[in-house]
Amino acid sequence: MQKTSLTRTMTRTLALSMSLTLLIANGIAPSAVAKDRVAASSDWRTPYVEGERKLKTQELEAAESAFEQAWINVRHDKKSTADDQALCLQSLASVRYMRDQFYEVVVPQYKKAIKLLEKKHGKDSPKVVPPIVALAGVREDEGDFKDADKLLTRALGIVEKADGKASLTYADYLHRLGRVNFKLGFPRKAEDMYFVSLTTVMQQKVLPSSEILEQHLIDYIDLLTKAENRGKIFESAFQKELLKDSTASVERSRGIAASIFNREVSSRIAKPGGQNTEEDRIFPGDVGPDFQGISSRVKPAITPDRAMSDFAALEEINKQRVAFYERMISTDILSLGPEHPSVARDLSGLAALYLSQKKFAEAKPLLLKALSIYEKTYSPESSMIKRTKALLQLVEDEQNPQSGANSVAIADYVSSLPPVPLAAQKMEVALRLNYLAFLLYCQGKMQNAEKIYSWAVASTAKAAGEGSLLAASSLIDFSRVLRSTGKQSDAENMDNTAQAILRRSISQNAARSLP
Description:
Low-confidence stretches: 1-40, 245-249, 251-309, 403-408
Order of helices and strands: HHHHHHHHHHHHHHHHHHHHHH
CATH class of the domain at 34-225: Mainly Alpha
Structural class: mainly alpha
Number of helices: 22
Strand content: under 5%
CATH superfamily of the domain at 34-225: Tetratricopeptide repeat domain
Distance between the termini: 70 Å
Radius of gyration: 33 Å
CATH architecture of the domain at 34-225: Alpha Horseshoe
Number of strands: 0
């Protein structure tokens, strides 16, 4: 790069020499040109604004030319301050570095900007921080990590005195320092810095965007995945749920209108024929504790698969459905026998229809009979048995809403979680938070994993919905960490809530899948 820069410098010098020769040949003295330039240099703001505009449109060559003119003009403006000169110089150095040009010029320009500000404001003034951090970024990119470490350490000390450790700026610079330390070969030190900086970012009431948070998570995850001791890799319920088609489980995204495409996909997934797939999604072999004996107050929002404005027409359709299932049950009993699994399947279908109408008393005996048949045919871990038990628990929850075991509603668990900024309430952030917490759990770093899982659950609940399957999966993973840290009661509450979400999801899907 030095040879290329030297060649460009020689070319620019030769071009300048030729220009001067032509000016002299035409009878124009260099001093006259200088006077004209000084006369036209009273306005540096106009070319500076032009440079900013070109920079936004990524017209880097034009931006460099404009900033160069601003730098020339500001030096001849007697009213300009050291701040003005430093601003023009920083912008010129920045765009030149973006164009990968004049590296030997960029560093001196940043240093000159720092000296200008130090002379006017003092070495410990926050005014000198921006060019220091910019120069540290150049040093880091060029592989000079030791110099980058010194510069960032200095900037961090200034910001700590001026804004405190709770500021977003402090968190940003601490994270950058952690990244440099990781590149220097100090991963533990870097990880400590990452955790502190992430904690500070997540505690902000407002973030300008999710970009800074996502970059923090990307670097943190990168460090953990490259760690020598990655620990035992366990199975994550959240990751398993992501491997399935979870479009239908994402109920909403905070602050963003639902995608028409996603709504259509969800509608198609919910139509008849997808019931077995949904059972497999919700009840993997090792999803968690048995549902028997676990209860939670659930408020199902079950709706038919077709919107009906005419209540009488809806009632007529439901009557036809009941008659259909009753005929199927009678036919199967006569042809296959009263204990055949097909009879249990039809009983479950009729029960699901009653659940969609909130006729819990009618649904319960049907489900009990179906469960009795299934238990004679399948193993206790089969999806049919788990699904039937979950629907029976749903009936129990609705019939006994005031019982002690049903004291926690699905949406209430969010109130026990820490608040997260609006920028963290999106799926991209939720995915990374869950993965980061899972990596920490695998490496046995339970305290940090617990903290980050609390944010992960909150972020998932806000992005996908409090009652989504992704939220339930995140709760299951979180409960495992809570048990590891000795918080059995909290873990049980999270598990109960997750199972309640799964039961409601089954009920809703069963109702939508009715013929």
